[in-house]
Specification:
The chain is an all-alpha fold and about 475 residues long. It is about 60% helix and about 0% strand.
């Protein structure tokens, strides 16, 4: 490890980024790097060098020991758990972190370790990758720090004014043409394979987010809270057309199409940017690829999505009184689940392209609203829309989810009209005495498209996951 003592803005970070292989492919890079006389290719830089970035990017709810252990797991493959523990303990001892090993990292909103301790954790994470330690300042005590800093300055000054400096430059040129050269001291490259890395990232992500108790409760109950709000207004659905039997069901379908995707979007905006920042840093160190963190997060949110939507669907379906059939409840649950997951996946796609989470949140609100308006036909029937918007509706998942939910609820449903249960009363609302007629007038052909709509809706999930992965692969070059 090399320490640089230079003026602000003099190019320290750019130089370190260049040496450690952190510069993107689009950045200009001139010159050559030699280690022990051997020419080092640009793609090999990160395998040999490390440095601690200015900003400490750590997961808030992991303890110091857990954070360093996961870094070691991502770096080392064949080491036993006891061996990894020894290495973690050794580096914590070296950087005086042993007394805070079981304290969480913390953040602005969560009390954790101090800023100086966070800095030492970041240094420890780099040391676990086994980089080329040449000169360093000992920060274990103020006395050692002043002494070693002064010594380094003396070395720098003496070295620049010595004949050795000139001879070394000449030797570097000479070694370029030697036949036998000493090997390049690469970092430990016995790292886990891609699947094992994803599993480690999944474990780390789950452990970190599981410590946020309030966050977990909100993720599981956010859809239920929305359901309670809707239930207050609808109470119990009836079959009397004059009492809004159709209107209430249409409104409920509209809410079930628009709200669950939005809660999924909020989850991704709230949780993933911190993980993305970690992956941006650790991928530059060569620990794993950015898309692997994305895959780990997708696997992580699946059970939360299932449980949250199951709680919401069970409450809203049977409390409000939708079509009383177990198989139709299963379809309702499956559609709401797909919509919720699609909302989160769309947000992940955008987060792969846009850095600012606030911009992403604003964008997804507009995107979700536009999809509901264009795709559902609940604001204006699709048949009445201008042709460009009608064609655009095929690209929205809301088109398929709304058609499925309308058919699922209205098919086979018979309505009454006012007192006496007469379906032929002189009332304009009484024209639609059968649910099937409402479907054919507002969603022509939806009955025949039911299975196709369901398959297309669920096809959005793998397609969006693949697009998200591709977006994060593109981030590797930036």
């Amino acid at each position: 490890m090399i320490n640089f003592f230079c003026l602000k803005g003099s190019g320290k970070t750019t130089l370190l980024d260049a040496i450690s292989g952190r510069l993107g492919h689009k950045d200009n890079f001139f010159g050559e790097v030699y280690v022990n006389g051997r020419h080092l290719k640009r793609e090999q830089f990160r395998d040999c060098f490390s440095y601690v970035p200015q900003n400490d990017t750590l997961l808030s709810f992991l303890t110091v020991q857990e954070s360093l252990t996961y870094t070691a797991l991502l770096t080392l493959k064949k080491c036993s758990n006891s061996s990894i523990k020894k290495q973690v303990d050794a580096v914590m001892t070296e950087l005086s972190l042993g007394h805070i090993a079981d304290k969480i990292i913390g953040s602005r909103n969560v009390v954790g370790i101090s800023g100086g301790e966070r800095r030492r954790v970041s240094v420890a994470a780099q040391l676990l990758q086994d980089p080329m330690d040449l000169t360093s300042v000992d920060t274990r005590s103020k006395e050692h720090e002043l002494e070693t800093y002064s010594r380094v300055q003396e070395f720098v000054s003496a070295y620049r004014n010595s004949e050795i400096f000139s001879k070394v430059l000449a030797a570097i040129e000479k070694t370029k043409y030697m036949k036998e050269l000493p090997p390049i001291p690469f970092k430990n490259k016995d790292s886990p394979n891609g699947f094992e890395q994803i599993l480690i990232l999944l474990r780390r992500t789950t452990r970190n987010l599981s410590r946020d108790k309030i966050g977990i409760i909100m993720r599981l109950l956010q859809n239920l809270l929305f359901g309670l709000f809707v239930a207050v207004f609808l109470l119990r659905l009836g079959n009397d057309l004059t009492q809004g039997a159709v209107q209430d069901r249409v409104g409920l379908v509209y809410q079930c199409v628009s709200a669950p995707p939005y809660t999924g979007m909020l989850n991704a905006v709230a949780l993933f940017p911190a993980l993305r920042a970690i992956s941006d840093q650790e991928s530059k160190d060569g620990l794993y690829k950015k898309w692997q963190m994305l895959v780990a997060y997708i696997v992580h949110f699946l059970p939360f999505s299932v449980i949250s939507v199951a709680i919401f669907s069970t409450f809203i379906y049977w409390t409000i009184g939708l079509y009383p059939d177990a198989s139709r409840f299963g379809i309702f649950f499956a559609v709401v689940l797909a919509s919720h997951m699609i909302g989160e996946l769309i947000t992940l796609v955008i987060l792969g392209m846009v850095q600012d989470p606030n911009v992403v949140q604003s964008g997804i609100v507009l995107l979700n609203s536009a999809g509901v308006i264009v795709g559902t036909g609940l604001v204006r029937t699709i048949e009445e829309m201008p042709k460009p918007l009608k064609l655009l509706s095929f690209l929205t998942f809301q088109r398929y989810s709304s058609e499925i939910l309308v058919v699922n609820e209205f098919y086979g449903l018979n309505f009454t009209c006012g007192e006496g249960n007469s379906s032929t009363a002189n009332n304009a609302a009484c024209v639609l005495s059968q649910g099937a007629r409402f479907i054919e007038e507002n969603y022509p052909g939806a009955l025949s498209r039911f299975t196709a709509d369901f398959l297309i809706l669920y096809a959005f999930i793998p397609v969006l996951a693949i697009i998200a992965i591709l977006c994060f692969k593109l981030r590797e070059n930036h």
